[in-house]
Amino acid sequence: MPTQRSDATGSTGKNARRRAKLPEHLDPGGELVTGDTELDGALLTGPPPDPEDERVVADVGLTASRWSSGRLTGRRFRRLRCVDVVFANCDLSGVVLENSGLRRVEFRECRMSGTVLAGTRMEDVLFLRCKLDTANPRMIAGDRLEFLDSELGRADFHEAALKRTGIHDSDLSGADFSGADSRGLRLHGSRLHDIKGAGDLRGATIAPDQLVDVSTALFAASGIAVGDRR
Q: What is the rounded distance in angstroms from the CA atom of residue 40 to the CA atom of residue 126?
C-alpha cells in the first residue's frame, strides 16, 4: 500500500495536519495591530503601526484572521498567540517571537530569512514555498508541522521537537539537527547536503535517493574520511 503524503491543500492519515479555519467574511483591521490587542476575523494588510518600545509588540492575539503582504522585517513579538491564521506573501525576515504560540497557522510564500522561532509552541503549522534560510527554530515544541517546497538552508533545528513533522521537497543544505527529537520526522524530496547533527535523525524517514547525503554527513560527524588510496 503506498505511503500517503500531505500536500498544500490538506493532509491525509491519522497524523494529518489540521488546516486553518477562516470565516467567509473578514473585517479590515490592520491599523489595530498594537500591543495588548485581540483580533478575531480580521483581514490585515501591510505593516502594523510602529511600536513605541524599540519595535516590540507584546500580548497580541489573532484568531481566524488573514494577514496579506505584511512587511514586518525585524519586528519583535512577545507573547504572540495565533489560532486559525494565514500569513500570505508577508516579509517576516528577522522577526523574533518570544514566548509565543501558533496553532493551525499557515505561512504561504512568505520571506522568513533569519526569523527567530526559538522556543515557540507550534501545532498544525504549514510553511508553503517560504524562504527560511538561516531561520532559528531552535527548541521549538512542534507537532504536526509541514514544510513544503521551502528554502531552509542553514536553518538551526538544535534541540527542536519535531513530532509528526514533514519537511518535503525543500532545501535543507547545511541545516543543523543537533539534539533534535526527530521521531516521526519525514524528509522525502528534500536536499540534505552538508546537514549537521545527522546522528540525531534517529526515527526520521528518508527516501533511498537521500542515502548518499545522509551517509556522508554521518561519516563526517564520526570523523571517518572518505578518499582515494595514496
A: 20
* Structural domain for 120, as ranges: 27-222
Cell 519535531 locates to 162
Q: Find cell 500591543 and name the residue.
A: 35
* CATH code at position 181: 2.160.20.80
Find, among 1, 8, 2, the residue nearest to 150 by Cα.
Answer: 8
151 found inside a domain? yes
Give one DSSP letter per residue of 54-74, joined into a string. Answer: TTEEEEEEEEEEEEES-B-TT
Enter the C-alpha cell of residue 146: 509541514
CA–CA separation, 230 vs 222, rounded Å?
22
How far is residue 161 from each of residues 43, 178, 213, measured CA to CA in Å? Answer: 32, 11, 22
Residue 171's identity, in one-letter code, is D
Q: How many domains does the chain have?
A: 1
pLDDT tier, 122 (very low <50, low <70, confident <90, very high otherwise): very high
Within a domain: 229: no
Pairing of strands 141-148, 121-128: parallel
pLDDT, tens only, 135-159: 999 999 999 999 999 999 999 999 9
Rounded to whole angstroms, how far apart are CA atoms 39 and 5? Answer: 34
